[in-house]
């Protein structure tokens, strides 16, 4: 799908930002963060859901494919920036929790200065890539200029996001992620307004997508600076706080996250580029559309899991490992309640969905590619919170090494397998399916075992959750197939109705299977009380 900040002035700003007037316990804070994250995600996906077929219809699937490819190139550059920024929130949060104002300012200032320098350096290769785009990837002359402008705005958007990333730490430090979500809602509305205006008053072009994203990012940046000043007034950017030792500390920890990002690129992030070079730019557009829904699902559960990250980091700073374990188990059960719904719905209704969503495309091909891209979700979605554990405990080295080895094998097999066939459809299946196969291996073996090791609990601790989630996916899928056979799903209303039936059944089944008697009783009492 197409890839932020609310206007809280006066009394509204005081309401959200003045901690003396708004005092909430951890549970209420968690609930506020979770609701805001979900609402923000729904708005983002809803807007993208409506805009994707709109853009594809106006500029074509081939041109749309270059949106995803440009974002992939950005992810390649993030290998460099993630080494510094991935651990910044952790260290700043710990310093503030320890009431070390001097230390938090040294970390904050050092990262801000380093990010500005990095953005300036990366602007040079970005310009070279844009100017020589047709020599790097396959792009038809008819859309070359439009695609170059698209990439220019997407790369500029990335450079601005590098500079602004440190300022987003304030809502994390204060465990007020709902403010970030509210930013996202407003920024997405702004993004769609820019797109609609551009397509309405000017000749349709794919580069409007990049322009809209850039405008939204600038808006988010302004409000992140505002939140930093309001939520963490003790943090100042001053020349005297810049410290190369701090940069070295962050890089020594974050370099392994760079390896993890590189590994992700090698295993899945090269899919569109490999398709462009080894199949065609048109096939790349098809794969880009097919990966939209799986990416959205993974983003949703990553977003839900991220709500646990601030408190997990705070608990680690307080050396409260028991609380960390409770938080992780809580996140697994919470995510498990809903994990089977999108997977079962895709299995049963996926082809119908594509016929309705992008009627000009091959629905069956999109459906098969989508299923190949999300098989791992059967096992891994409830465990998304474990990635936060590795960051909070600063144990990312082993994760990075495993991911890197996994990805090298993945891309090697893809490149070799592509040499044995000339069928473009089979090539797409190879590209989409190979990375998923190794993702399944990672989900079933490395992630649960190493996660248990980091918590010092039994290595099999997470396998009951994996087995239960797999069972719920199978049961919910069978139910959804029965619904599809009994209902005539020939429009959006019937598809939505079928999805609601699947959701109700899945939540009811998981409520019984995933929760124990005490937990079910507690949930019922809380619902009745509310």
TrEMBL record:
CDD domains: MATE_like. Keywords: Cell membrane, Membrane, Transmembrane, Transmembrane helix. It is found in: Cell membrane. The chain crosses the membrane at residues 30-51, 63-86, 107-130, 150-173, 185-202, 208-228, 249-273, 293-314, 334-354, 366-389, 401-422, 428-450, 471-489, 495-516. One of its GO terms (cellular component) is plasma membrane. Pfam families: Polysacc_synt. It is a multi-pass membrane protein. This is Polysaccharide biosynthesis protein. It comes from Trichococcus pasteurii.
């Amino acid at each position: 799908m197409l890839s932020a900040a609310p206007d809280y002035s006066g009394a509204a700003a005081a309401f959200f930002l003045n901690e003396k007037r708004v005092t909430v316990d951890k549970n209420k804070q968690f609930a506020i963060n979770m609701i805001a994250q979900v609402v923000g995600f729904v708005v983002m996906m809803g807007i993208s859901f409506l805009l994707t077929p709109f853009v594809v219809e106006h500029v074509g699937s081939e041109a749309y494919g270059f949106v995803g490819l440009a974002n992939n190139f950005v992810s390649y550059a993030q290998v460099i920036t993630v080494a510094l920024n991935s651990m910044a929130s952790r260290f700043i949060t710990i310093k503030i929790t320890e009431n070390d104002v001097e230390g938090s300012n040294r970390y904050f200032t050092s990262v801000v200065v380093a990010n500005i320098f990095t953005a300036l350096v990366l602007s040079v290769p970005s310009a070279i890539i844009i100017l020589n785009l047709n020599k790097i990837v396959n792009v038809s002359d008819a859309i070359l200029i439009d695609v170059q402008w698209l990439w220019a705005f997407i790369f500029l958007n990335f450079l601005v996001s590098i500079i602004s990333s440190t300022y987003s730490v304030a809502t994390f430090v204060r465990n007020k992620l709902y403010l970030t979500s509210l930013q996202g809602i407003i920024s997405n509305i702004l993004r769609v307004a820019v797109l609609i205006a551009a397509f309405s008053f000017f000749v349709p072009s794919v580069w409007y997508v990049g322009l809209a994203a850039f405008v939204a990012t600038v808006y988010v940046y302004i409000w992140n600076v505002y939140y930093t000043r309001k939520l963490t007034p003790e943090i100042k950017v001053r020349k005297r706080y810049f410290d190369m030792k701090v940069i070295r500390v962050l890089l020594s920890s974050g370099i392994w996250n760079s390896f993890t990002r590189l590994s992700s690129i090698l295993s899945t992030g090269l899919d569109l580029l490999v398709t462009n070079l080894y199949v065609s730019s048109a096939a790349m557009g098809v794969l880009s559309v097919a990966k939209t829904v799986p990416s959205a699902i993974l983003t949703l559960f990553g977003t839900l899991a991220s709500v646990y990250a601030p408190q997990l980091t705070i608990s680690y700073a307080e050396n409260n490992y028991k609380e960390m374990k409770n938080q992780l188990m809580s996140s697994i059960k919470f995510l498990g309640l809903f994990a089977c719904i999108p997977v079962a719905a895709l299995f049963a209704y996926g082809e119908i969905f594509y016929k309705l969503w992008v009627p000009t495309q091959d629905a069956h091909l999109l459906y098969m590619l989508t299923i190949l891209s999300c098989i791992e979700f059967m096992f891994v979605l409830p465990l998304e919170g474990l990635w936060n554990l590795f960051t909070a405990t600063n144990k990312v080295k082993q994760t990075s090494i495993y991911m890197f080895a996994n990805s090298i094998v993945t891309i090697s097999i893809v490149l070799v397998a592509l040499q044995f066939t000339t069928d473009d459809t089979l090539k797409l299946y190879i590209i989409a399916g190979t990375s998923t196969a190794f993702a399944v291996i990672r989900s079933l073996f490395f992630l649960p075992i190493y996660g248990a090791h980091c918590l010092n609990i039994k290595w099999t601790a997470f396998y009951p959750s994996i087995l239960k989630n797999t069972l719920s996916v199978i049961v919910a899928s069978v139910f959804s197939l029965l619904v599809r056979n009994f209902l005539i799903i020939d429009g959006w209303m019937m598809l939505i109705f079928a999805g609601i039936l699947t959701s109700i059944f899945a939540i009811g089944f998981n409520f019984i299977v995933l929760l124990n008697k005490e937990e079910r009783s507690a949930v019922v009492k809380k619902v009745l009380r509310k």
